[in-house]
Write a structure and sequence with these properties.
Elements (H helix, E strand, L loop, with lengths): L1 E6 L25 E2 L3 E2 L4 E6 L5 E9 L3 E11 L5 E5 L5 E2 L4 E6 L6 E11 L3 E11 L8 E9 L9 E8 L5 E9 L3 E9 L27 H11 L4 H33 L20 H11 L4 H13 L11 E7 L11 E8 L5 E2 L4 E6 L6 E4 L3 E2 L4 E8 L13 E2 L9 E6 L15 E7 L17 E5 L10 H4 E5 L15
Parallel strand pairs: 22-23
Antiparallel strand pairs: 1-13, 2-15, 3-15, 4-14, 5-6, 5-9, 6-7, 6-8, 10-11, 10-13, 11-12, 14-15, 16-17, 16-26, 17-22, 18-21, 19-20, 19-24, 24-25, 26-27
Helix pairs in contact: 1-2, 3-4
Length: 507
């Protein structure tokens, strides 16, 4: 089913949880269903289907501000539900973009069940946002969208004519096995190819489900077979044999789980191909390991990915993230990008500033700047006025198209920045000159916050906020250790303005 709606949103568009798909093992000979594409008609037509027996696990996107190119990532799942392997064999469709972004379903829900897509219209209509919905390769499982399976480009600007969104899922009984669409310099459009869910046979040595024992009788029977025979004969030995059988099945299950975890970690290292320090989308979504942490882990395991990760770690030392802000008088104390979304708390996005110092700070000539989580196009809001010691300043930003949520408290300043709800980069500078790089370095940089899967932050990005939550600095705004993940927590959005009671930070 495809639903096309005309909206102009601040990239906090609603994510609707779709009905569960009924998964069952089916024959791969079933004819595929190619669903309608969504987006513009520019570029050439392409079809990218996973190999027979594989299903769609996610995408490698080539991105800047929009989606330039796309490559499907395919997966094989065993009948046990275990992931057997991922494939990156499909060709890239579209342009190379400014960097790679991976949107993948994790091992606990490895199969793509639906996608949400957005487009913007400039010279032509092109894709600028993708959300991936994930489900288990089993019956009666709900679909879920993961924090690391979302890419949002910027919303429409003054020179653009429209911004559209669409959600598409495969028909009941089918699952995504590829994509088709149009691409040239950019990804103009794409839609799902749906086919049967095909599960690979378990390997012959799969022990967790059959309880095969290493302890056996002289005739080769396992302990579980002896327990069944004893029970059938009414033997007094049956309870003892059954207990041993259950213990050995539990041991086998633990060994199998340990093997799966080890294989999953090895596969995760192979996927560290995007920008420095990016959290791996196939690892735990809450993971906050730096690229140097991952390099050390990979070397300890003897992973083939270790040299590549170590090179990225060395590069990160040579090109550090934004300058430390621990001496900054004014910090970014709250970031909210869910303004105007369905179910959102407030009608507008907002950024809150806080003066940690004991002196008033004049903001004339300063600016607040924003870029998408993977982008290098920085939008500028000029600041003015003075912020007193211990005082907050509420900077109202763009309103979402759905006009959801309550009005903000009276803002101190109004801007037009459109913040993504789940990931982005916000900078406070003592200049109005726009930044230029993915991870800027500037002597004028006062404070910097990266959140979600942003490719730049003070150390590690803060976790992803949502439609009702914000990234909120600890201790009322006083904490600043130059680590976004440690300094900002995801809490209910609670905007404060200059009329809020001032607080004094410890000297």
């Amino acid at each position: 089913m495809t639903i096309r709606t005309a909206v102009v949103c601040a990239l906090a568009c609603p994510i609707v949880i779709l009905p569960s798909l009924f998964f069952a093992t089916m024959a791969s000979a079933q004819v595929d269903q190619v669903l309608p594409t969504f987006g513009g008609g520019g570029g050439g037509q392409f079809t990218a289907r996973c190999a027979q027996g594989q299903m769609l696990n996610g995408f490698e996107l080539r991105t800047g501000d929009d989606v330039d190119g796309i490559r499907p990532i395919c997966i094989t799942v065993q009948q046990s539900g275990d992931v057997q392997g991922r494939s990156f064999d499909a060709p890239l469709n579209g342009g190379p973009g400014a960097g790679a972004t991976y949107l993948g379903c994790p091992d606990l829900a490895p199969v793509v069940t639906a996608v949400w897509r957005s487009t913007e219209e400039a010279k032509t209509e092109i894709i600028n946002g993708v959300h991936v919905f994930c489900g288990k390769a089993a019956t009666d499982q709900p679909v879920t969208t993961y924090p690391t399976a979302v890419f949002d480009g910027p919303p429409d600007g003054d020179s653009r004519h429209g911004f559209w969104s669409d959600q598409q899922s495969c028909p009941s009984g089918l699952v995504a096995v590829g994509i088709s669409g149009h691409s040239g310099t950019w990804l103009d459009s794409f839609g799902l190819i749906c086919g049967a869910l095909v599960l690979a046979p378990n390997p012959e040595n799969y022990v967790a489900s059959i309880g095969r024992s290493t302890t056996s009788s002289s005739d080769g029977r396992s302990i579980c077979e002896m327990a069944r025979d004893a029970r059938a004969r009414g033997s007094v030995a049956a309870p003892n044999l059954e207990a041993k059988c259950e213990a050995e099945k539990a041991n086998a299950a633990r060994e199998a789980q340990a093997q799966r975890v080890s294989a999953s970690k090895a596969a995760a290292d192979q996927l560290q191909l995007a920008s420095l320090g990016q959290v791996n989308p196939w690892a735990d979504p809450a993971s906050q390991r730096s690229v140097c942490d991952m390099a050390r882990d990979a070397r300890a395991r003897g992973s083939v990915a270790a040299p590549n990760l170590e090179a990225q770690c060395a590069a990160s030392a040579a090109a550090p993230p934004p300058a430390p802000a621990s001496k900054a008088a004014v910090v970014i104390s709250q970031v909210y990008g869910g303004g105007g979304s369905e179910g959102g708390s407030f009608a507008n996005d907002f950024v809150e500033l806080f003066n940690r110092s004991q002196s008033a700070v004049k903001l004339d000539g300063w600016s607040l700047q924003y870029a998408s989580g993977n982008g290098k196009e920085w939008k500028v809001m000029k600041l003015k006025g003075t912020i007193a010691p211990g005082q907050y300043l509420l900077l109202q930003q763009s309103a979402g198209s759905l006009v959801g949520g309550n009005p903000l408290p009276t803002p101190d300043l109004k801007g037009k920045l459109a913040l993504a709800a789940g990931m982005g980069k916000v900078a406070l500078l003592e200049t109005t000159q726009a930044l230029k790089d993915l991870c800027p370095k500037s002597s004028k940089l006062v404070d910097f916050v990266g959140y979600g899967s942003a490719n730049c932050a003070e150390s590690i990005p803060a976790q992803s906020p949502g439609r009702t939550t914000a990234a909120v600095r600890d201790a009322g705004g006083c904490t600043d250790t130059d680590r976004n993940a440690a300094d900002l927590q995801i809490l209910a959005a609670t905007p404060r303005n200059s009329t809020t009671a001032a607080i004094q930070c410890a000297k």
